[in-house]
Design the sequence.
């Protein structure tokens, strides 16, 4: 992780009757995020029973984080995702910047600032 990169881990529990709907929304989110400058990684991982999801996101810097949070993927699709799942964990690694930090903590994210590592 470089000095300016920011990573998220987002844990979701998928509603038992909504797995197909969850996958459709997630696919649309992936397609939208692929178009965002500064999005380096957007990896969705599912448990064997397809009820638990971990999303691992990586952004080049705080500007890319803010662009993602204020863009159409988060603003338009996260509410739809939360109709078919519930947020069970959210961690941010690195400095997302003050405005994004406020937005993220409002969503329940725990932010872990960089302490030591590669420069």
Sequence:
């Amino acid at each position: 992780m470089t000095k300016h990169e920011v990573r998220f881990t987002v844990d979701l529990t998928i509603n038992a009757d909504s797995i197909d709907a969850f996958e459709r929304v997630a696919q649309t989110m992936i397609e939208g995020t692929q178009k965002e400058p500064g999005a380096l990684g957007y990896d969705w991982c599912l448990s064997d029973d397809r009820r638990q999801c971990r999303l691992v996101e990586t952004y080049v810097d705080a500007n890319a984080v803010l662009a993602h949070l204020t863009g159409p993927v988060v603003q338009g699709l996260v509410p739809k995702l939360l109709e078919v799942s519930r947020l069970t964990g959210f961690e941010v690694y690195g400095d997302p910047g003050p405005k994004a930090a406020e937005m993220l903590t409002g969503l329940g994210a725990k932010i872990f600032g960089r302490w030591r590592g590669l420069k």
